[in-house]
Amino acid sequence: MNTYDFYKKSADYILDKINYMPEIGLILGSALGSLSEEISDQTIIDYKDIPNFLISTVESHAGKLILGKLREKNVVCMSGRFHYYEGYEFEQLAIPIRVFKLLGVNTVILTNAAGAINKEFKPGDVMIIKDHIKLTGESPVRGKNIPELGPRFFDVSDMYTKSLRDLTKECANELNIDIKEGVYFYATGPQFETPAEIKAMRILGGDTVGMSTVTEAITAAHCSIKVLGLSLVTNMAAGVLEQPVTTEEVDETGEMASEKLKKLIGEIVEKIGNR
Ligand code: HPA
Protein backbone atom coordinates (compact mmCIF):
# COMPACT_ATOMS: atom_id res chain seq x y z
CA MET A 1 0.00 0.00 0.00
CA ASN A 2 1.52 3.37 -0.96
CA THR A 3 1.93 5.97 1.78
CA TYR A 4 2.05 9.76 1.75
CA ASP A 5 5.86 9.59 1.97
CA PHE A 6 5.94 7.34 -1.10
CA TYR A 7 4.40 10.10 -3.23
CA LYS A 8 6.38 12.83 -1.47
CA LYS A 9 9.62 11.15 -2.48
CA SER A 10 8.69 11.53 -6.17
CA ALA A 11 7.49 15.11 -5.70
CA ASP A 12 10.59 16.19 -3.77
CA TYR A 13 12.84 14.82 -6.52
CA ILE A 14 10.96 16.90 -9.11
CA LEU A 15 10.71 20.08 -7.00
CA ASP A 16 14.44 19.91 -6.44
CA LYS A 17 14.95 20.52 -10.18
CA ILE A 18 12.74 23.62 -10.46
CA ASN A 19 12.27 26.85 -8.51
CA TYR A 20 8.49 27.19 -8.72
CA MET A 21 5.40 25.09 -8.07
CA PRO A 22 3.34 24.18 -11.15
CA GLU A 23 -0.35 25.03 -10.79
CA ILE A 24 -1.72 23.24 -13.84
CA GLY A 25 -1.13 19.59 -14.73
CA LEU A 26 -1.57 18.27 -18.25
CA ILE A 27 -1.90 14.61 -19.15
CA LEU A 28 -1.99 14.11 -22.88
CA GLY A 29 -3.32 11.05 -24.65
CA SER A 30 -1.86 9.13 -27.56
CA ALA A 31 -0.77 11.20 -30.57
CA LEU A 32 -1.43 14.39 -28.62
CA GLY A 33 1.99 14.54 -27.01
CA SER A 34 3.13 17.30 -29.41
CA LEU A 35 1.13 19.78 -27.32
CA SER A 36 4.06 19.83 -24.96
CA GLU A 37 6.17 21.58 -27.66
CA GLU A 38 4.39 24.81 -26.77
CA ILE A 39 5.82 24.79 -23.27
CA SER A 40 8.72 27.23 -22.79
CA ASP A 41 11.60 27.15 -20.27
CA GLN A 42 11.36 23.38 -20.23
CA THR A 43 12.76 21.15 -17.56
CA ILE A 44 12.44 17.58 -18.85
CA ILE A 45 12.61 14.61 -16.53
CA ASP A 46 12.47 10.99 -17.70
CA TYR A 47 9.88 8.99 -15.80
CA LYS A 48 12.48 6.34 -15.16
CA ASP A 49 14.61 8.80 -13.16
CA ILE A 50 11.81 9.79 -10.77
CA PRO A 51 11.78 7.65 -7.62
CA ASN A 52 8.58 5.61 -7.19
CA PHE A 53 7.20 6.78 -10.55
CA LEU A 54 5.97 4.44 -13.30
CA ILE A 55 7.44 3.76 -16.72
CA SER A 56 5.39 4.09 -19.90
CA THR A 57 5.26 0.98 -22.08
CA VAL A 58 3.22 2.27 -25.05
CA GLU A 59 5.26 3.33 -28.07
CA SER A 60 3.26 6.45 -28.91
CA HIS A 61 3.62 7.70 -25.34
CA ALA A 62 6.87 9.55 -24.73
CA GLY A 63 7.56 8.81 -21.08
CA LYS A 64 8.73 12.26 -19.99
CA LEU A 65 7.61 14.83 -17.49
CA ILE A 66 7.87 18.33 -18.94
CA LEU A 67 7.79 21.31 -16.60
CA GLY A 68 7.74 24.91 -17.75
CA LYS A 69 5.54 27.78 -18.80
CA LEU A 70 2.49 27.66 -21.03
CA ARG A 71 0.81 31.05 -21.65
CA GLU A 72 2.51 32.50 -18.56
CA LYS A 73 1.28 29.68 -16.30
CA ASN A 74 3.56 27.22 -14.56
CA VAL A 75 2.62 23.77 -15.80
CA VAL A 76 3.68 20.16 -15.47
CA CYS A 77 2.91 17.98 -18.45
CA MET A 78 3.02 14.22 -18.70
CA SER A 79 3.92 13.34 -22.23
CA GLY A 80 2.78 9.75 -22.08
CA ARG A 81 0.45 8.32 -19.47
CA PHE A 82 -0.15 5.00 -17.76
CA HIS A 83 -3.00 2.61 -18.44
CA TYR A 84 -4.50 -0.43 -16.77
CA TYR A 85 -4.01 -2.48 -19.95
CA GLU A 86 -0.24 -2.12 -19.61
CA GLY A 87 -0.46 -4.29 -16.51
CA TYR A 88 -0.54 -1.63 -13.78
CA GLU A 89 -2.89 -2.03 -10.86
CA PHE A 90 -5.48 0.66 -10.27
CA GLU A 91 -3.63 1.86 -7.18
CA GLN A 92 -0.49 2.45 -9.24
CA LEU A 93 -2.50 4.58 -11.64
CA ALA A 94 -3.09 7.04 -8.78
CA ILE A 95 0.63 7.88 -8.63
CA PRO A 96 0.92 10.68 -11.24
CA ILE A 97 -2.00 12.73 -9.92
CA ARG A 98 -0.98 12.33 -6.29
CA VAL A 99 2.52 13.47 -7.21
CA PHE A 100 1.00 16.43 -9.11
CA LYS A 101 -0.91 17.35 -5.94
CA LEU A 102 2.29 17.43 -3.94
CA LEU A 103 3.91 19.60 -6.62
CA GLY A 104 1.18 22.20 -6.04
CA VAL A 105 -1.13 21.44 -8.95
CA ASN A 106 -4.73 22.64 -8.44
CA THR A 107 -6.17 21.93 -11.92
CA VAL A 108 -5.58 19.10 -14.36
CA ILE A 109 -6.40 18.92 -18.04
CA LEU A 110 -6.74 15.33 -19.21
CA THR A 111 -7.01 14.51 -22.90
CA ASN A 112 -7.67 11.19 -24.56
CA ALA A 113 -8.20 9.60 -27.93
CA ALA A 114 -11.63 7.99 -27.98
CA GLY A 115 -14.08 6.12 -30.15
CA ALA A 116 -17.46 7.72 -30.80
CA ILE A 117 -20.41 5.77 -29.43
CA ASN A 118 -22.70 8.70 -30.24
CA LYS A 119 -23.56 8.42 -33.93
CA GLU A 120 -23.85 12.21 -34.27
CA PHE A 121 -20.13 12.57 -33.56
CA LYS A 122 -17.43 12.21 -36.20
CA PRO A 123 -13.68 11.59 -36.20
CA GLY A 124 -11.84 14.83 -35.43
CA ASP A 125 -14.53 16.08 -33.01
CA VAL A 126 -13.54 17.28 -29.56
CA MET A 127 -15.84 16.38 -26.67
CA ILE A 128 -15.80 17.96 -23.24
CA ILE A 129 -16.26 15.16 -20.72
CA LYS A 130 -19.27 16.01 -18.60
CA ASP A 131 -19.22 12.77 -16.65
CA HIS A 132 -17.97 9.21 -16.98
CA ILE A 133 -19.16 5.65 -16.56
CA LYS A 134 -16.77 3.02 -15.23
CA LEU A 135 -18.36 -0.34 -14.61
CA THR A 136 -15.19 -2.17 -13.51
CA GLY A 137 -15.06 -2.71 -9.78
CA GLU A 138 -11.71 -1.20 -8.96
CA SER A 139 -10.85 2.33 -7.85
CA PRO A 140 -7.42 4.01 -7.93
CA VAL A 141 -7.99 5.23 -4.36
CA ARG A 142 -8.96 1.82 -2.93
CA GLY A 143 -6.98 0.70 0.10
CA LYS A 144 -5.95 2.49 3.28
CA ASN A 145 -6.96 6.14 2.95
CA ILE A 146 -4.30 8.86 3.06
CA PRO A 147 -6.03 11.66 4.99
CA GLU A 148 -3.33 14.22 4.03
CA LEU A 149 -4.60 13.84 0.45
CA GLY A 150 -8.35 13.57 0.97
CA PRO A 151 -11.20 11.92 2.86
CA ARG A 152 -12.15 8.23 2.76
CA PHE A 153 -15.47 8.90 1.05
CA PHE A 154 -15.82 11.79 -1.34
CA ASP A 155 -18.30 13.35 -3.71
CA VAL A 156 -17.79 12.96 -7.45
CA SER A 157 -20.91 14.68 -8.72
CA ASP A 158 -18.86 17.63 -10.05
CA MET A 159 -15.70 15.64 -10.85
CA TYR A 160 -15.44 17.24 -14.29
CA THR A 161 -15.60 20.79 -12.95
CA LYS A 162 -18.46 22.83 -14.38
CA SER A 163 -16.58 26.15 -14.41
CA LEU A 164 -13.83 24.54 -16.51
CA ARG A 165 -16.37 23.06 -18.89
CA ASP A 166 -17.98 26.48 -19.29
CA LEU A 167 -14.60 28.09 -19.87
CA THR A 168 -13.82 25.48 -22.53
CA LYS A 169 -17.05 26.24 -24.36
CA GLU A 170 -16.20 29.96 -24.35
CA CYS A 171 -12.68 29.31 -25.64
CA ALA A 172 -13.95 26.95 -28.35
CA ASN A 173 -16.46 29.60 -29.44
CA GLU A 174 -13.77 32.25 -29.68
CA LEU A 175 -11.58 29.94 -31.74
CA ASN A 176 -14.49 28.81 -33.91
CA ILE A 177 -14.00 25.21 -32.86
CA ASP A 178 -17.10 23.04 -32.88
CA ILE A 179 -17.28 21.42 -29.46
CA LYS A 180 -19.37 18.55 -28.12
CA GLU A 181 -20.12 17.59 -24.54
CA GLY A 182 -20.96 14.14 -23.25
CA VAL A 183 -20.23 11.06 -21.20
CA TYR A 184 -16.96 9.10 -21.48
CA PHE A 185 -17.32 5.36 -21.08
CA TYR A 186 -14.26 3.65 -19.63
CA ALA A 187 -13.15 0.36 -21.14
CA THR A 188 -10.12 -1.49 -19.77
CA GLY A 189 -8.76 -2.65 -23.16
CA PRO A 190 -6.34 -3.39 -24.70
CA GLN A 191 -8.78 -4.94 -27.16
CA PHE A 192 -11.19 -2.47 -28.68
CA GLU A 193 -14.81 -3.13 -27.77
CA THR A 194 -17.22 -5.54 -29.41
CA PRO A 195 -20.15 -4.06 -31.36
CA ALA A 196 -22.48 -5.49 -28.70
CA GLU A 197 -20.53 -3.76 -25.94
CA ILE A 198 -20.75 -0.46 -27.81
CA LYS A 199 -24.49 -0.89 -28.24
CA ALA A 200 -24.83 -1.55 -24.51
CA MET A 201 -22.69 1.52 -23.71
CA ARG A 202 -24.94 3.65 -25.93
CA ILE A 203 -28.04 2.42 -24.12
CA LEU A 204 -26.36 3.24 -20.80
CA GLY A 205 -25.61 6.82 -21.87
CA GLY A 206 -22.04 6.77 -23.18
CA ASP A 207 -20.96 9.17 -25.95
CA THR A 208 -17.28 8.29 -26.29
CA VAL A 209 -15.27 5.24 -25.22
CA GLY A 210 -11.64 4.98 -24.22
CA MET A 211 -9.06 3.26 -22.03
CA SER A 212 -7.75 6.10 -19.86
CA THR A 213 -8.59 9.28 -17.94
CA VAL A 214 -11.05 7.99 -15.34
CA THR A 215 -8.41 6.76 -12.90
CA GLU A 216 -6.78 10.19 -13.07
CA ALA A 217 -10.08 12.04 -12.68
CA ILE A 218 -11.10 9.98 -9.64
CA THR A 219 -7.70 10.42 -8.01
CA ALA A 220 -7.88 14.17 -8.66
CA ALA A 221 -11.38 14.40 -7.18
CA HIS A 222 -10.11 12.65 -4.04
CA CYS A 223 -7.38 15.24 -3.47
CA SER A 224 -9.50 18.25 -4.55
CA ILE A 225 -7.84 18.96 -7.88
CA LYS A 226 -10.20 20.45 -10.47
CA VAL A 227 -10.54 18.37 -13.63
CA LEU A 228 -11.11 19.20 -17.26
CA GLY A 229 -11.39 16.12 -19.50
CA LEU A 230 -11.37 16.30 -23.29
CA SER A 231 -11.95 13.40 -25.68
CA LEU A 232 -10.62 13.66 -29.19
CA VAL A 233 -12.78 11.42 -31.34
CA THR A 234 -10.37 9.40 -33.47
CA ASN A 235 -12.80 6.82 -34.86
CA MET A 236 -16.37 5.66 -34.75
CA ALA A 237 -16.63 2.93 -32.09
CA ALA A 238 -16.98 -0.73 -33.06
CA GLY A 239 -20.08 -1.63 -34.99
CA VAL A 240 -21.08 1.96 -35.84
CA LEU A 241 -19.62 1.60 -39.32
CA GLU A 242 -19.10 -1.56 -41.35
CA GLN A 243 -15.36 -1.50 -40.83
CA PRO A 244 -12.95 -2.57 -38.09
CA VAL A 245 -11.44 -0.17 -35.54
CA THR A 246 -7.74 0.22 -36.31
CA THR A 247 -4.81 1.71 -34.44
CA GLU A 248 -3.76 3.43 -37.68
CA GLU A 249 -7.02 5.35 -37.87
CA VAL A 250 -6.76 6.29 -34.19
CA ASP A 251 -3.20 7.61 -34.63
CA GLU A 252 -3.82 9.39 -37.95
CA THR A 253 -6.90 11.25 -36.77
CA GLY A 254 -5.11 12.09 -33.54
CA GLU A 255 -2.29 13.68 -35.51
CA MET A 256 -4.66 15.57 -37.79
CA ALA A 257 -6.75 17.09 -35.04
CA SER A 258 -3.92 17.81 -32.63
CA GLU A 259 -3.43 21.40 -33.91
CA LYS A 260 -7.00 22.25 -33.03
CA LEU A 261 -6.65 20.74 -29.57
CA LYS A 262 -3.34 22.52 -29.01
CA LYS A 263 -4.94 25.89 -29.73
CA LEU A 264 -7.90 25.13 -27.51
CA ILE A 265 -5.80 24.01 -24.57
CA GLY A 266 -3.51 27.03 -24.93
CA GLU A 267 -6.50 29.34 -24.73
CA ILE A 268 -7.97 27.49 -21.75
CA VAL A 269 -4.67 27.57 -19.86
CA GLU A 270 -4.34 31.30 -20.58
CA LYS A 271 -7.80 32.02 -19.16
CA ILE A 272 -7.84 29.62 -16.18
CA GLY A 273 -7.92 31.53 -12.94
CA ASN A 274 -8.18 34.90 -14.70
CA ARG A 275 -11.89 35.26 -14.03
N1 HPA B 1 -12.23 2.24 -28.06
C1 HPA B 1 -11.44 2.36 -26.99
N2 HPA B 1 -10.42 3.19 -26.91
C2 HPA B 1 -10.19 3.97 -27.98
C3 HPA B 1 -10.97 3.91 -29.14
C4 HPA B 1 -12.05 3.00 -29.19
O1 HPA B 1 -12.79 2.89 -30.18
N3 HPA B 1 -10.45 4.82 -30.01
C5 HPA B 1 -9.41 5.41 -29.38
N4 HPA B 1 -9.25 4.91 -28.15
What does this structure look like?
- It contains 6 helices and 9 strands; from the N terminus they run H-E-E-E-E-H-E-E-H-E-H-E-H-E-H.
- By secondary structure, it is of the alpha/beta class.
- The chain has a single domain (4-271), classed as Rossmann fold.
- A 5-stranded mixed β-barrel has the order 5-8-7-6-9.
- The longest helix has 25 residues, at 247-271.
- The structure holds hypoxanthine (HPA).
- Hypoxanthine binds next to strand 5, strand 8 and strand 9.
Using brief descriptors, characterize the structure shown:
binds hypoxanthine; 5-stranded mixed barrel; 28% helix; 275 residues
Proportion of strand residues: 15-25%
Rg, Å, rounded: 17 Å
Determine the fraction of residues in helical runs and give it as a percent range: 25-40%
Low-confidence segments, given as residue ranges, are none
Level-1 CATH class name: Alpha Beta
Q: Count of helical segments?
A: 6
SSE ordering: HEEEEHEEHEHEHEH
Ligands bound to this protein structure: hypoxanthine
CATH superfamily: Nucleoside phosphorylase domain
The total domain count is 1
How many extended strands? 9
The name of the CATH topology is Rossmann fold
List the strand order in the largest sheet.
5-8-7-6-9
By helix and strand content, what is the structural category?
Answer: alpha/beta
Task: Give me the secondary-structure topology.
Blueprint: H1 4-15, E1 24-28, E2 40-46, E3 64-70, E4 73-79, H2 95-103, E5 107-116, E6 126-133, H3 162-174, E7 179-186, H4 195-204, E8 208-210, H5 214-222, E9 226-236, H6 247-271
Parallel strand pairs: 1-4, 1-5, 5-9, 6-7, 7-8
Antiparallel strand pairs: 2-3, 3-4, 5-8, 6-9
Helix pairs in contact: 1-2, 3-6
Bound molecules: hypoxanthine.
